[in-house]
Amino acid sequence: MRNLRLDICYEGTRYRGWQRLSGTDNTIQAKLEQTLSRILGEPIEISASGRTDAGTHAKGQVVSFHCQSTMPCEEILFKLRSYLPEDIGIYSCKNVSPRFHARLNAKTKTYTYRLWNSEEPCVFERKFVHIDPRPVDMDAMLRASRDFLGQHDFSAFCANKHMKKSTVRYIESFSIERLENEIRFTVTGNGFLHHMVRIMVGTLLEIGRGERTADCIPALFGASRADSGELIPACGLCLMEVTY
Amino acid sequence: MRNLRLDICYEGTRYRGWQRLSGTDNTIQAKLEQTLSRILGEPIEISASGRTDAGTHAKGQVVSFHCQSTMPCEEILFKLRSYLPEDIGIYSCKNVSPRFHARLNAKTKTYTYRLWNSEEPCVFERKFVHIDPRPVDMDAMLRASRDFLGQHDFSAFCANKHMKKSTVRYIESFSIERLENEIRFTVTGNGFLHHMVRIMVGTLLEIGRGERTADCIPALFGASRADSGELIPACGLCLMEVTY
Prior knowledge:
Alpha-Beta Plaits
């Protein structure tokens, strides 16, 4: 059966997240599945590299699906671009090996979290950042962030308290940059638990504000959700890249 | 009487332009005047460096107004930031000489016009660019744009056909850059007629598409509106800076 890969982006502001939900079609998965089913004339079910939360954005989401249709990729791409709402964009549509699966084959994912850390107005970027002007200690956050690197049990950074599967993940890189009015957190890992990036950055911000010490991270591995920091808002988060 | 200067920005998407209009309070001037009047407890009338059209943005608008209030500038700034909608931002609030007037004293203004010139998706910048993927000849547009420099009669680039005042303006610089998916036009002049930047860029784009020759600009000085190019959409336009 034919297997297709889409590379896509979206502004998550007005959606209830990636995943199809019963009772609403206001999810990105539902919009894409409805549009593809209409274009291809057959019911389409898609898999993404992973779900994104309500309000979270994506600049590098990857999707795959099977279909019977022989419609050329260029035509599918053109029709998707014509029919989808303007907050969902398609970079490419390609035929891939029947064994490719957007979620199961994902090797790493990279997310950014953007904090607007200034009293200056944030008019043009306001839907893509979390605004919190309280001063933070960059050095303390940088030191603490290094403890995330490597393989650890991120149970304390998972919103799902009754997670039955493994909560062990591998973090490959973690950077924190100060731009003019913004602090940008960028993390790459082999997978992320539910709300994991938002809780990791929330915990670092508590360190940055002096509410926790910079050496508190190692004690959180294998600990429980109550021990880690605040879940910060979804609007600052963006899925940037998935590698295979 | 006390005279105050505000440096402000706004996303123009949902407004009917800068200028107060009867029958609606959905203009940026009306929002600012209402909010200032409430904060200062006296009726406030403001002057901007110039009007912006419905849908046009500003990153460097300057405003001045007189008031009786002795409220400190920091307090006015703090209250404005608290009460104004999130698509209007205030950079600063300063006491200035009683003779300063945001419109009458303006020496130059700089506008950018952003064209998304690509089939690639434009999800995140879509409210700040005009999308037109048709290929254009950058060299032809660059050559033509040089003819705008200097002092000319821009009658053909003015939406107001019955303009009684002078249509002579001085253009100090005009640059056109190609970024990845975008072409950015930046123009600085001593003043701009109604719709002038949008008609200038619209005319350059017709040159870029080969619908006009690159040497057509000089013949348009002193000509009529019917001779120049298309008025392109307001969403790509942004007032970047005013100098005094």
